[in-house]
Amino acid sequence: xxxxxxxxxxxxxxxxxxxxxxxxxxxxxxxxxxxxxxxxxxxxxxxxxxxxxxxxxxxxxxxxxxxxxxxxxxxxxxxxxxxxxxxxxxxxxxxxxxxxxxxxxxxxxxxxxxxxxxxxxxxxxxxxxxxxxxxxxxxxxxxxxxxxxxxxxxxxxxxxxxxxxxxxxxxxxxxxxxxxxxxxxxxxxxxxxxxxxxxxxxxxxxxxxxxxxxxx
Amino acid sequence: xxxxxxxxxxxxxxxxxxxxxxxxxxxxxxxxxxxxxxxxxxxxxxxxxxxxxxxxxxxxxxxxxxxxxxxxxxxxxxxxxxxxxxxxxxxxxxxxxxxxxxxxxxxxxxxxxxxxxxxxxxxxxxxxxxxxxxxxxxxxxxxxxxxxxxxxxxxxxxxxxxxxxxxxxxxxxxxxxxxxxxxxxxxxxxxxxxxxxxxxxxxxxxxxxxxxxxxx
Amino acid sequence: xxxxxxxxxxxxxxxxxxxxxxxxxxxxxxxxxxxxxxxxxxxxxxxxxxxxxxxxxxxxxxxxxxxxxxxxxxxxxxxxxxxxxxxxxxxxxxxxxxxxxxxxxxxxxxxxxxxxxxxxxxxxxxxxxxxxxxxxxxxxxxxxxxxxxxxxxxxxxxxxxxxxxxxxxxxxxxxxxxxxxxxxxxxxxxxxxxxxxxxxxxxxxxxxxxxxxxxx
Amino acid sequence: xxxxxxxxxxxxxxxxxxxxxxxxxxxxxxxxxxxxxxxxxxxxxxxxxxxxxxxxxxxxxxxxxxxxxxxxxxxxxxxxxxxxxxxxxxxxxxxxxxxxxxxxxxxxxxxxxxxxxxxxxxxxxxxxxxxxxxxxxxxxxxxxxxxxxxxxxxxxxxxxxxxxxxxxxxxxxxxxxxxxxxxxxxxxxxxxxxxxxxxxxxxxxxxxxxxxxxxx
DNA sequence: CATGAATGAGATTTCATTCAT
DNA sequence: AATGAATGAAATCTCATTCAT
Lengths: 216, 216, 216, 216
What we know:
The structure is a homotetramer. In chain A, helix 1 (19-34) crosses helix 4 and helix 5 packs across helix 9. Chain A has 2 domains: 16-60, Homeodomain-like (Arc Repressor Mutant, subunit A, Orthogonal Bundle), CATH 1.10.10; 63-212, Tetracycline Repressor, domain 2, CATH 1.10.357.10. In chain A, 70% of the residues lie in helices and 0% in strands. Chain A is mainly α. The longest helix of chain A has 28 residues, at 130-157. The first copy, chain A, has helices at residues 19-34, 41-48, 52-59, 62-86, 95-111, 113-124, 130-157, 166-184, 194-212. Mean pLDDT of chain A is 91; it is low at 1-15. Chains in contact: A-B, C-D. The A-B interface holds A 33-35, 37-38, 119-120, 122-128, 130, 133-134, 137, 141-142, 145, 168, 171-172, 174-176, 178-180, 183, 186-189, 203-204, 206-208, 210-212 and B 33-35, 37-38, 119-120, 122-128, 130, 133-134, 137, 141-142, 145, 168, 171-172, 174-176, 178-180, 183, 186-189, 203-204, 206-208, 210-212. Chain D binds a DNA duplex through residues 1-2, 13-16, 19, 40-42, 50-54, 56-58, 61-62. Chains A, B, C, D: It holds the Pfam family TetR_N.
């Protein structure tokens, strides 16, 4: 942060790698594969290549470490999802195709490694850190719903969707996408072939458009 | 069996009969409020009113205890859900009303104490016990989807729904119900007023019927 | 003990197998393969085919069980050894051959399954049950030494060995036999080929006779 | 390292240096008086003046602790025995006296506190750690036998013993020494008076020399 | 700032032993 | 006499966290 401007200095001759970032990355990785309780600080420190007290110096305690690691991952996942939703800003002539494309991209994000780990950790710790979970939920699902609602509102105003409550429409579109995927991937334990993912996206959009498409 | 008829005679000089059930109940309660790792067998034993080794005598180890407690809870939740789905066997004249009624009942089950705890534990341990989770998932969500698909197939044949893939329709109806509820209850951390629950059910059914209702 | 006179009724149509004997046998077997502390009463009961409390009914506690099991095994081993020593009662013309034969037989006993297990258990528990160990030691090694000393005294009187302290001679003969065997069998962990065992016996007797043989 | 020079400064604010050695010493002491299974790490930690996890930090687990403690004790005992055997390098004119002196010294070592404890532990755990026991056996008995054989070979070459297999001679001399001592000390449970120890040594050497002394 | 070493607390599990039938 | 069920006690080991350098 001091010298280099690239926060994760790709291949740049990074002078001092940010230990803090290394710790957070390692923490998310370890939390993801072990869960919160089973993850031990020693393993995180090893994965980050630092000594245990260094972790405590930077992030005070295990809980804080978890909160920061989760927060960072949530931001990343959300950015990816919003990027996918942006696609709807320029729907082109074929709305159905644009929706399907957007939907498929979002599903890809949701099925990705990071999003799956984040979802598991989120659910797993909803009892232990309800406030954190709520924050994450709002910064991810909530934020995505809003972005989607914005797009749908524009489309409705433009007459390309029938008049509707855009928040509700967005909520239902998301549900039609993620619900079946969770079921088919068995909560993320089995990989879903790309073709099936695409089929889920298309079925969701078809149903959505029958319900929300412009009236004949 | 001879003298005492109290099935759970607290401190009665005979404690042979339903110790196992008491342990399983206590286990689910403790797992539900502490999570798998934080739950300790001592607490479960205390809650069940038995000594710690008794727990081990009956259920071998913590993992086995967890599996049985989860399995039992899953069966209970499923039975409740199937009972709600049965409502669709006699839809009466007003299909929309019947669907909304069924939907609302299922949401009530899903938002109940036990179902919420089961959902949390399921997600939380999907990394640790993938096989168990898969089983639970199939015995609950999967089974419910099938039951629902059966009903929808009948309705479709009867011309009260347009021709469709009943499995897909059931999957999407379930998604339209549970997805929004998860979002609004913040993964189950906040109570959703009955009115809002009903609204979710109605919106889901309305959307569903626009997509799957009989063609004009 | 009541009806049948065969204490371990070989193939006889044993009316009531002696549970007590079955327990003692099982106990020795389990103690032998697990050691005293690692042997658990449950396993002994299983091996004996009875329930755990039955073991306690018959033998009061684990310590008592151990004492009786060890005692019985010691008696058996001792009987075998004494039988071998008896051979010296009729030495025949060739004393050297008679001694070698006796020595070899005793080594066979000492290397047998039971004697080895007994030796291990004895040493292992010498700290925990010093009195028992002392008893066993006297009933086995001590008793054998005396028997041997008797034979050697006769031989000495008969002029077939030079005048000597027969107790000391017996002690040293035993030492020349068992010491090298313990070393070569690595305390009983590796099998010693019969040829090597015989060589040990012969070397012991040769040395013994050079020291105690009749003066030229 | 800067302020305190006391190598084991009891409660000094620095305890970094010889904790490991203190733990190993304490471990051998506790194992010696309790046996492997009955020794508990808590007691070892207390005896060493450290906290329980410190024991685990330094030696990983109870088994490893045992192996190291035994190994160290074996080395010490062996060094003492080899020092005694060295005596034979300068036998002087009176071979018999030199042998008796050496023999007595070795018996003193063998009857010492540490050697007795080592022997008990060795036998007791021969079932549980056969590889360790074998190692110990070779590093002690085996090594001593070789050293002794070397001395005897020299003496034989010098004509002070008759031509013989020195390994066998050493083996038998050791047996003549330790065998009777084990019997008389009842496996180490009772103290043998110095006079009796000396008598055993002399008897062993006398017998040995009659068998292996120079031919008249 | 980074670290090696140390520790207090607590979890799972096993075992010998005893009731009550 | 024999047993299924229950229990008090204890042991191994792990972890989050803190000194002192």
